[in-house]
């Protein structure tokens, strides 16, 4: 992992040699705003060539007018792809793709949409159904993504602000073993991301959503940062119990980490 992180730093330097407008998303993913830099497709080819020549690695790039489409394009033709989604072509490009291709549409949401006859993004584009009754507050964003609309700017802050993981249950549940198992899995996921990014967290948050889409978050700010799955899991359990959040079956459960800082030698551990 140390080698992986070191390689990431060198590749990010290559990206910034093309433009300072770089949003680093993870150790191996970034957005670049090339809107004022000329021919973005030719620049993408040059970026791929530089990474290959200088680092001996392949890369996959999506070129489009916004972050959603660029991210989608980067997933095509891996491990050495270059996919261009032009603005005038985006609606047609999206039509045959499954609804699960949209960021934020996980297996449970996809299943709920499919149960209403919406299998593809094209069917989502044309639906007259009230999406709010299916996906709640995500409805407006979902419809925009289906049409290839995404107005999120490239974030130029080089520091990751938060790390999170969520689980949406197939059936609403307050079954403690099921909730504990989900928490442990999410704690492992976010702890692994902390390790990959080489950071620790001073703030731990839990998120719950009930069947009526009512959502609550509660958090704790620590004196010393946490890094391990065990610490994160115990703190999440503490927050759920202290705030009596499992007062009815949960539709969604999540863990979030923020106030990210360099890890310290002595870690803070709570046991409950």
Automatic annotation (TrEMBL):
GO molecular function: damaged DNA binding; DNA-directed DNA polymerase activity; metal ion binding
EC id: 2.7.7.7
Pfam families for this protein: IMS, IMS_C, IMS_HHH
Every UmuC domain range: 1-106
Enzymatic reactions: DNA(n) + a 2'-deoxyribonucleoside 5'-triphosphate = DNA(n+1) + diphosphate
Uppermost EC category: transferase
Species of the source: Brevifollis gellanilyticus
Biological processes, Gene Ontology terms: DNA repair; DNA replication; error-prone translesion synthesis; SOS response
Any one cellular-component term (Gene Ontology): cytosol
Record keywords, A-Z: DNA damage, DNA repair, DNA replication, DNA-directed DNA polymerase, Magnesium, Metal-binding, Mutator protein, Nucleotidyltransferase, Transferase
Superkingdom, natural source: Bacteria
PANTHER family: DNA POLYMERASE KAPPA, DNA REPAIR POLYMERASE UMUC / TRANSFERASE FAMILY MEMBER
Similarity comment: family membership: Belongs to the DNA polymerase type-Y family.
Name listed for the protein in its UniProt record: DNA-directed DNA polymerase
